[in-house]
Here is the input.
Amino acid sequence: MGNKLKLGLVVMAVAFFTATNSPLSAKGVDRPFKGFANAVTNNFVFENPAPDLFEPENPDGLAILGYFDIQYVGRSTHLGKMTRQEYAVLYEDGSFEGLMIFVAANGDELYATLDGSLDSLGPPTNGSGCYFFFGGTGRFENATGITYFELFTPDFNDVFVTFDGVVNY
Here is the structure.
């Protein structure tokens, strides 16, 4: 193979790599997202703790049993050691919805709405649902994706959560 052909292939490869990996052309990449978080909380209240951040939709007009304001610690892919702040409303049928703010080890934030349900309203109970990512700060500015979670609470004071899904950034 001639030197001119080799040089041409190298130039084309560099041009292709630069064009497809340029920040200007970046559309995000689906990445596996999994981890765990734990909380100890007594923050079950009867008024919305974050009205400026989260207004429940309640399309079925269910009675509201109360609101959660929970701070978690945990670890996950792409965030490392992290904290999370959850604002959620619990309805009479055991369903809940809310807002989640994940904070990565470097301070970047990842935002998600959450939608789920509890197996029962009496402790102990299990629950499950989804996080729907909609942005954040730093590298998560335009994040999207869906992650499924499972939770267990023996007493509505201790909460243990695992999650597994995809985040795109």
Summary: Residues 3-21 form the longest helix (19 residues).
